[in-house]
Each structure stands twice: as structure tokens, then as C-alpha cells.
Amino acid sequence: MIKGLEPWVQDDDNDNLGWPENLADVFNGIPAVSPHLIEGVLRKGHKMLIAGPSKAGKSYSLIELCCAIAEGRSWLGWQCAQGRVLYVNFELDSASCLHRFKDIYTALSWEHDHITNITVWNLRGHTLPLDKLTPLLIRRAKYKGYAAIIIDPIYKVLTGNENNAYAMAQFVNYFDQIAYECNCAVIYCHHHSKGDQSWKRSMDRASGSGVFARDVDALLDMTELELPQDRRREGITAWRITGTLREFATFPPVDVWFDYPLHVIEHFDTKEVAPHHELQPHQRAMNARKSKEQKLKERKRRLEAAYDICSADGPVTISTLAEYLGVSLDTIRRSVDEHPSFDRENGVVSRAFHR
To answer: Above 50 in pLDDT, residue 2?
Structure first.
């Protein structure tokens, strides 16, 4: 140790972080951006999350994506660059997982000319938390030339409380490490939180901390659609896919049927469909019969959830909450005033936890 030097000065040559660059030094030789893996949605080496409720067919959509990347074909209308892909399966037994791949290839009517591009790592019964799994995964994937690693689902590898932003920030850093070390995209799915999702933005529907949605380069959110009686199909559900993208302009919503085992593109007239979680006539009638106490409890719960979401971006104001919930400023003021755990002063809302 060199006498008189602080530890951060002594060790900075060994931190592997490189040095800041002056823009003037690189302005005329800026590296090319990573090419598209999924046209207009995701670049190679970046991260993507698919979020949706149970029975949306998220795992099927990920297997469809595996096949599309392997064959260099289209997935949900987006062209995929051809490459190798590793599918990490935590949920299904090996035989069931492999049958899904074969069923999807058969339903797509694709020749499996490039099936050697797909590798499946079946880990049901051997699940590890992501901090323990990451070095094992990197060891197996680092030199395989994968274009993408798909992890399905992430709740099996969660470390820490999913509602704790600090814990989840540490958790998602492991995906960065996998992407960096293996030089590939990392794609995974997560479920929606419980309860009514209709008032939330698509990026806030995934269960747990908002870190999940804000960390990725592309978020695809799936919500079920309620169709008129004459448009419904027995055993088939309708879904709308919306995107929050860091690298590209937002795409128009994509509507699909989930016709087992595939998601098939459809174009629904917006006048004839509504998000499944919006109240139907019989539900509105039931809501009207709720007691004042029940309605107050629901307003409080919605305010708490909206506050938690908005607070991730800094101080929460009356106008921020009103915009997020799509209600008037007076409505928010009344909601804050009737909630014993909230205070407001000069338009800023704070969580007091006691009054």
C-alpha cells in the first residue's frame, strides 16, 4: 500500500470500469448501435420483459420467439434476426417443455431446418436464486454465440422482496451481467400484480417494484380483451399487446388470438373491444351495491398503489396522482384527505403513516 494515498486512489487502476470519455474524442467515430434482434422492438445485447396475467400464454409466446429467432422468421408481426437461442425453463418438466416446442413448430407449419439453433436448459426441481444461477449460466453460455437467452419465468429465481426497489435493482443487475458476459439479449417474463389493472399504465402492471419495467429496454404488456358475443370463440382468448420501448418509437397495439398453442394476429375494431379488466354491466351493477365502507377501502388501496408507483420518479404531487389515475385534482385532494396515512401541503403529497 502506498503511504498517504486513499484506498479509492490506490485501487482505481484495477477496477475494470474504464475511464470517462470526452465527447470530442469520440464524436467523429461513434460506434454503430447494436443491430436489431426483433425489428423495431429489441436490439441485440439488450433486455426485454413480457408481462401479463395468468393464462395469457406468456411461456408459449417465448417459445414462439425461440423458434422465430432460430429460423429467422416473424414473431407477432416483427421480423427476427436469425441466431442461436438458449431457453432456460424453470416451470415445466423436461418432456412437457420439449413437447411444447414440437407442438409450436407443427402449428406454425415451419420446417425445422435450423432447429440446432435452439438449446433448452431444463431446471425444474433445480431452481437457484439468480445470484447463484448467474455464474453457472454464464459458464455454460459465454462462448456459445447465443443471440438471446430466454429465462422463463423469473419468479422462480427472485432474490429479495419483489416490492423493494433496492432489492429489485440488485436483482435486475444480474440480467445486465448475463447480457454483458454472454454478449446477447436477455428476455424474460413476469406476471401482473393482483387486483384491478385498468387504471395502471402498462409499464406498472407487472407485479412488484416498478424497477422491473423501468430497467428493461423493451416491455411488452399483454391485457385480455372482452369481445362482443358474436366475435367470441370457444376456448380461444383475445389479447392486446402494448409496448414501452427505450430504443424505438412506440408501436401501435398488436391484437392477437391465443389459439393454443399459438398467438395469431387479429385486427379488432377498437369500438368492439374493451380491456377485460374494465367493468362489464353486471360488474358495474355489483359495484353500485357496495357499501360506503367497501368503496372507501378501495379508494384508499388505489391511492396507496398509485403513490408507490409515482414516488419512484421523485416527490409526488396532487397533479401527478390526478394525471396517473385519470381523475380531477379535487378528487385526489378528497382521497388524500380521507386517508389517515397521507398528508398534503402546497400541492405535494407525503405518506405520514400516522396522524
So the answer is: no
Distance between CA atoms of residues 302 and 335, nearest Å: 10
Q: How far out from the chain centre does Cα 201 lie?
A: 12
Q: Are 256 and 239 in contact (CB under 8 A)?
A: yes
Answer whether residue 11 shows pLDDT above 60: no
* Distance separating alpha carbons of residues 131 and 159, to the nearest angstrom: 8
pLDDT classification of 78: cutoffs 50, 70, 90: very high
Taking the C-alpha atoms of residue 207 and residue 191, their distance in angstroms, rounded to an integer, is: 6
Determine if the pTM surpasses 0.85: no
CB 108 within 8 A of CB 67: yes
Give me the phi and psi of 36, to 5 degrees please.
-70, 140
Q: Report how far residue 118's alpha carbon sits from residue 354's, in angstroms, rounded to the nearest whole number.
A: 55
Q: What are the C-alpha distances in Å from 26 to residues 17, 30, 34, 156, 244? A: 18, 6, 17, 42, 30
Q: How far is CA 173 from CA 47, 71, 177, in A?
A: 11, 30, 6
Beta carbons of 172 and 212 less than 8 angstroms apart? yes
How far are the Cα atoms of 112, 226, 232 from residue 236, in angstroms, in the given order?
Answer: 26, 12, 8
Domains of the chain: 36-275 (3.40.50.300), 290-351 (1.10.10)
The burial of 248, by beta-carbon neighbours within 10 Å (0-12 exposed, 13-18 middle, 19 or more buried), is given as middle
91-144: per-residue pLDDT in tens? 999 999 999 999 999 999 998 889 999 999 999 988 788 889 999 999 999 999
Whether 230 has a pLDDT exceeding 70, the answer reads: yes
